User: Which sequence fits this backbone?
């Protein structure tokens, strides 16, 4: 699958503001500063489509990007926001949960986990939550260019065990490693191709 067009459509904080055209949606979730924007930009070959920031917790809305006029990539606010107030943290948590639980157009949630450290408690909580609500999901191990092959193998094994899944794709925004595999998974989810 190759993406030929991608554009930002809107930011939303509640269901009434979400697009209503029933196109399938792929959600991107993960801790703050995990690399969601970099992944979106790499998958779409569009520099600056999603704004990257070195400051965690910057995304506080649900952002919709129209891809090839046939589906949306949905960038969810990061979880584990250390630097925002408890009130903001709770409202963001409710916003993310509301989207994931009630969005019928959602075909796949890609959950990003930092390859340089074991999955955190909030990663495990998100994975258990996605599985509990039977939301199709896959784990993307980010920033793999920053570790050795041995470290990557170890990170892969740790994630398989901790998150209890074999649906794990190593990815690097720097080298593009894993991009084709992620796009193939998205195509399967959107087109309902049997695995």
Assistant:
């Amino acid at each position: 699958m190759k993406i030929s067009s991608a554009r930002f459509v809107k930011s939303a904080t509640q269901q009434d503001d979400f697009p209503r055209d029933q196109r399938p949606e792929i959600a991107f979730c993960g801790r703050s500063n995990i690399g969601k924007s970099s992944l979106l930009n790499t998958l779409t070959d569009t520099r600056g489509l999603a704004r990257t920031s070195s400051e965690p917790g910057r995304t506080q809305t649900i952002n919709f990007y129209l891809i090839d006029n046939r589906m949306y990539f949905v960038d969810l606010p990061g979880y584990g926001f250390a630097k925002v107030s408890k009130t903001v943290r709770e409202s963001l948590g409710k916003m993310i949960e509301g989207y994931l639980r009630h969005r019928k157009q959602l075909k796949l949630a890609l959950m990003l986990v930092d390859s340089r450290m074991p999955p955190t408690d909030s990663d495990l909580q998100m994975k258990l939550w996605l599985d509990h609500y039977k939301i199709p999901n896959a784990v993307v191990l980010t920033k793999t260019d920053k570790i050795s092959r041995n470290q990557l193998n170890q990170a892969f094994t740790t994630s398989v065990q901790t998150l209890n899944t074999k649906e794990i794709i190593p990815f690097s925004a720097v080298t593009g490693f894993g991009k084709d595999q992620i796009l193939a998974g998205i195509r399967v989810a959107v087109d309902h191709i049997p695995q």
The two ends are 16 Å apart (CA to CA). Strands lie at 6-12, 25-30, 62-67, 71-75, 106-114, 137-142, 168-170. The chain has five helices and seven strands. The chain has one domain: 6-191.
